[in-house]
Amino acid sequence: MNFIVCVKQVPDTTEVEVDRESGTIIREGVPSILNPFDEFALNEAIRVKEKTGGRITVLSMGPPQAQEALRKCLAIGADEAILLTDQAFAGSDTWATSFTLARAVEKLGKYDLIFCGQQATDGDTAQVGPELARQLNIPQMTYVESIEEIDDGSVICKKETDGGYQRVKSGLPALLAFISTPAFEPKIPSIMEVMGAKSKTLSQWGIDDLGDEDGDYGLDGSPTQVIRVYSPPQRGEGVIIEEPPEVAVDKLIEYLESEGII
Amino acid sequence: MDFQLTEEQKLIKESVRDWFARNLPLERVREMDTKGHPYPQDIPKGLGELGVIMGTVPKEHGGQGLDWFTQTLIAEEIGYADPTIACAAAFMAVATGWGYTLDKYCSEEVREMAIKPALKGEKFVGIATTEPGGGSDVAAFKSTAEKDGDEWVLNGEKTFISGVEEAREWGGGYWVNVRTGEPPEDAPHKNMTSFFVPIDAEGLEPDKPYRDAGRNALSTGGFRMENVRIPDSYRLGEEGKGFYRTMEGFDNARLLIGASSVGVTQRILEEGMKYIKERKTFGKPLAKYEGIQFELVELYREMEATRLMTYKTAWMQDKRYQDGSFKPKDVAKWISMIKWKAPHLALEAANKAMHWLGAAGYSDEYMFEMAWRGVMSYCVGAEGGENIQKIVIGRELLGPDYVPYK
Ligand SMILES: Cc1cc2nc3c(=O)[nH]c(=O)nc-3n(C[C@H](O)[C@H](O)[C@H](O)COP(=O)(O)OP(=O)(O)OC[C@H]3O[C@@H](n4cnc5c(N)ncnc54)[C@H](O)[C@@H]3O)c2cc1C
Prior knowledge:
The structure holds two protein chains of two kinds. Chain A is α/β, with parallel strands linked by helices. Helix content of chain A is about 25%, strand content about 25%. Chain A contains six helices and 13 strands. By secondary structure, chain B is an alpha+beta fold. Chain B is built from 13 helices and ten strands. In chain B, helix 8 (about 240-280) runs parallel beside helix 10 (about 330-355), helix 8 runs antiparallel to helix 12 (about 370-380) and helix 9 packs antiparallel against helix 10. The radius of gyration of chain B is 21 Å and the shape is globular. The interface of A and B includes residues 189 and 194 of A.
């Protein structure tokens, strides 16, 4: 089977700090990592491939240095990687990103499943996966935790809902957007695997490689524009009334009155 | 000159960092230091799977064929992960530094029996050169080997030997230096020969392990040899040339322990910074006071300088092995500089950090005191004492006529 895993290199958000004056993220000196949701999706693809056989291609759009994240994917167990990198792709919003990814998927040809992370930890939009499915006109399942069954024509997933889990079946090809689980331990590539990744194919594709130059590429192809990035004002400490409801209601009214809210 | 790490080197560093964060967090380092030896074997087995033990051993011999520079980066990460330096001592300095050299000079028989399992973390290989009569002073060595047909018969005593308890539990053995003839009066290093001696050889009697000040997860012990018989195929290199092979082993082990000590310093400074930013006295964080901040900054400067020296030395070491453009003596001078500087810097960093923390730093609530006790082993003597490094450097600067022991 042919699997495509879409990944993104993101700043390590556990180390990100916000500039208090400008409200923007301080990126200098922050290490880049593979988006954790994508890492989960890739690990799941590797687990499935161990049973079904086949080939895993990782696909990423990003600046040239995103190659490092792809090399890591190859060390973890992907077979081939493609980096979509071109000045023309710069400034893409989620629509232009999914458009570009869709052109690349079409160029790759036959595939059975596309794996995405539910969202990237930098933008947190959770839009690219669903938009990509729409662009390719294939079914999508989101909030997927695992693949339970898969055969030549269909896949059954376990997906999270507000109240619990659903088992959902879909025909192939399809797109799955993965969440992560707390117990997840990503595969740590060994030295042999890192050295082995050196001889796997990692290609770079620019806009010329995707055929027609017309399309929703980059800033021009992006309907969304970010006007300002800022962090919400810090909230003061809250007040917690820990009393049985009969007492708490009175206390709450008293408090709201004293603050002049009601 | 290119200071950029390759993609592979970055990924390898990341793998080692991630592996240790998962398998040997500081809490476990503390537990192991408190409980003491023998070292839990899941760690070397995991490191074996990761491919970091004896990474420089050629692929044909079961290793990874790594360069020394990359192995140095690995050793640095291991020091960072375990600042008691027990892990780095066992699996970088000893198993890798000496193991690589052992592999270079041993027979296929010894390789199959000891090296291949040791690089998977299944057995322990170590170095046994120090004797009760002399550590630094090679001329005082008394252990002997006599040839008897196709075999050698070994007698003598080795002491302060890392990993004896681990070798007893997991299997394995030692690179053992003995005399195979009286040395000429002016050349005490001659007529020394090295052998591989399995820990379970008949006639080898282990001593009770020492109760060391630090790096407690790894044992230090010794053994007596009484008519230990081993085949000639266990000989390492030529008869009478053991001193030179031993110096090569020291070079490799010292390079890696220097690198690990840089990692220890890095961890101490990171953990120390967290503390001084949070702890307030007189209404301000400690980090604001020059008395504290400037000490941190000085240590940081020294650490970066030592790291650069270590990387340069590793690079020279690669040239030495790859194309011979640096001679062993050129490299040995640099190796001695970092073997002297790096553990002392880690010791100093631990000492200063303990002062920053006050009573907390002296307690086992924080990692500093166990780092302090641990790295002290490489200041007092392990892999050669401070003054011995100075003698090597002096010999290269002033010429061989100025060594103190001639
Ligand atoms: C934790 C630990 C683990 C060890 N593991 C091993 C091991 O696995 N295998 C092994 O073979 N050995 C091991 N050793 C022993 C180590 O190699 C010796 O400690 C070292 O060679 C120094 O020898 P010594 O302790 O006998 O000290 P000595 O040789 O007695 O030296 C004592 C002091 O005098 C200094 N000194 C010596 N000669 C001179 C001189 N000419 N001029 C000025 N100063 C001098 C030394 O630097 C040292 O500070 C270990 C030691 C330690 C502490």
